[in-house]
Amino acid sequence: MARENTNQNHPQNAPDYLAWHVTQKGEKAYWNKVGAAWKHKDGRGYTLQLETCPINGRIVLRLPLEDAPGTDNEAGRS
User: Fold this and answer.
1) From which domain of life does this come (predicted)?
2) What does the pLDDT look like over 37-77, one tens digit per residue?
3) Torsion, CA 42, CA 7, CA 66, CA 61, rounded to 10
4) How far apart are CA 37 and CA 77, in angstroms?
């Protein structure tokens, strides 16, 4: 299911990947969604749009899940 975006600075189609900021606290990982990525029409790259820019941790790109809950803190991914 594609998401419609009314902001003119964003592509009108659903992202190919979601960008997650991952921080590690002991054995637990915390995932916060920070943006998304769209494949270029020529298939040779991606546009990454971040809503925030973390200064620590790592950014992970993952395929969006249709049935994923809308929470910002999702632990247990690696």
Assistant:
1) Bacteria
2) 999 999 999 999 999 999 999 999 999 986 554 444 454 45
3) 60
4) 19
With tokens 């992970």, the residue in question is 60
Mark 42-63 as b/e (b = at least 16 C-beta within 10 Å): eeeeeeeeeeeeeeebeebeee
Say what the pTM is.
0.67
Task: In whole angstroms, give the CA distance from residue 34 to residue 54.
Answer: 8
- Assess contact for 15 and 64: CB atoms under 8 A: yes
